[in-house]
WG repeat-containing protein
Amino acid sequence: MNKTFTLILSFLLLSFTSLMAQSWEVYDTKLQLQSRLMYKEIELLSETVRIGKTDSVIYLLSADLKPAVSLEGDEIYQYLAPWILVSGKDGIGAFHEYGQKVLPLEYESIDTYFNLLLARKGNEYWLFERGYNKTTYLGELDEAKITKTGLIYAKRGGEYFLPISSNPNMTFQLLQDHGGDYLLAKEESGFGLINREGEYVLEPIIDSLQHTKGNFYYGYDQDQYLLIEGNDIKSNIRYNSFHRITFENDIMLEYIHGKLRRVMEEDGILLDAVGMTAVDKIGQDLYNVYFRDDKVGLLGKNGWLVKPTTAAQSISAGGEGFFPAFKDGNTGFLNSEGMWAIEPKYIEVSSFAEGIAGFKSGSNWGLINSNGEQISDANWQEIKPFQQGFAIAKANNEFFLINSFGRPVNSTGYDHISRTAEGFFLIEKAGKIGMLDSKGEALVPAEFESLRRERKDFIIAQKDGKTGIINEAGDLVLPLAYDEVLVDWATNQIFTKTKFVPVVIQTVEESGKKKRKGA
């Protein structure tokens, strides 16, 4: 081989390597090759929005996966339908998913709400309104936000205002968005409520007002305590009293002549009872109510879940009509009448699920049934609630599936077991992932780096850094040969990412002859 040929061959090898590029092969769900796409990355943002990225450009793709609109930036910052936020070297910009560029890539942050975009650069703000297809400069502000109902409020120099309302120059001492459908507003005359159109539905005349939950508010005005419900046209005072109502730690209580008398809900009385001494909130709409005669009951949104009883000192949320309750250092289960269904003899218990609950003895857990009969010794470090006939339990730092008899289904322990939404179980052993079926039987061995079940007999799997598709018998459907696999079920297309080497034809001279060499 002469020097000229060797030099040219070396050049060809270098060219061959540099021409390797990322490509995506597109298959239908029958694994018939449809096309090859020369993109570095493909992202499926929704059923209709697809992104393709080359080394230098991000494109919004057409239905046939061709570049339709350049999105100009370096990365997709966020997709908040219908807005695609794109980041570039100068900042963040926004495109509509149909391809319209609405904000240049120069902002530090962008908030969205359907047809509104609020953009910030330093302490300057801009608002894009798609209905008018225009961007309005709001000026230098201390703060500006879009509420959950699409109202814009802003703060400047200690004053608040509504820049796109019917009265944008009107100022407020306070505007507060709290997660409900109304803004809490304060003027010199008092507190009020503003709807999504920027109009008062409760005039600003209330001495004090605070949000409780949803569209309900707790207020005080002219020696009266008020429970108010927001309304799009005119808010309603649902309850008023000259007796003291407190609202602390998410508990609202009314006192009559200094004595606790009522447990209140958002718009009225939840419980009216004589002899109450204290109320503890233990969960969402769940309260332990204590009485002077040493009784305690469990109160829910619709009344007593467990009637007041002297049998226990505290009661917890339960399941299937059994309520864990504590008495003199031990725990058992009360029924709704406040009687012991299972005597308190355990250190701790879990709620019933599918007729089975856990009990703790020493540092370990066992199982009992609804008759209080022991069905499993306390030899588990942890037992999760039963679901569809199985629980996940831990012993000797390994996880097992156990059945309703408390027996392990699988003889091999795993480092981790988790349920999937379809009723299968992902297992992990020594850093590798496998899958059990809904009966706990081995479906896919634990030899993969990742598994994602898309549909029946369609599991995206990764092994040794390569990705493919396997069925539920563990057989290969698509070879484990790709850098990435995406599935677009809206169009029944499978995208596989791999290295692609284009064919290059070079002419090489050797000893006065010309030869065609393919690389």
Observations:
- Residues 1-20, 502-507, 514-519 have pLDDT under 50 and may be disordered.
